[in-house]
Amino acid sequence: MIWTITALVAGLTWGFWLGRRFGEEDGRKRGLAEAPLELRERALEGDRCPVCGSAIEDVPASPSGQPLLQWEQAES
């Protein structure tokens, strides 16, 4: 009976440790992959740079038809 309980506790501890280790590794990989996308999304939705806070202003399009963006320093 005591060996069964010991084996059960040891198995649960080992499973918890493995799950936590691989979960943290996977979380780091996902975070590194998603962070640049999140920053870009915030910048495009809010018309402000999430890093420095400067405003994005539209300026006339270039000859190729692509819009140009001009950064202005935010007044604090």
Q: What is shown here, in short?
A:
It is built from one helix and two strands; from the N terminus they run αββ. It has 76 residues and is of the alpha+beta class.
Plain-language structure description:
With about 80 residues, this protein is an alpha+beta fold. The protein has one domain (about 1-70). It is about 60% helix and about 15% strand. The protein is built from one helix and two strands. It has one helix at about 1-45; strands at about 55-60, 70. A two-stranded antiparallel ribbon has the order 1-2. The chain is rod-shaped. The N and C termini lie far apart (about 70 Å).
Please supply descriptive tags for the structure shown above.
76 residues, 2 strands, alpha+beta, 1 helix
Mean pLDDT: 77
**Strand residue percentage:** 5-15%
H/I helix tally: 1
Radius of gyration: 25 Å
Order of helices and strands: HEE
In one word, what is the shape? rod-shaped
End-to-end distance: 70 Å
Major sheet details: 2 strands, antiparallel
Strand order of the largest sheet: 1-2
Low-confidence stretches: none
Instruction: Please bin the fraction of helical residues.
Output: 55-70%
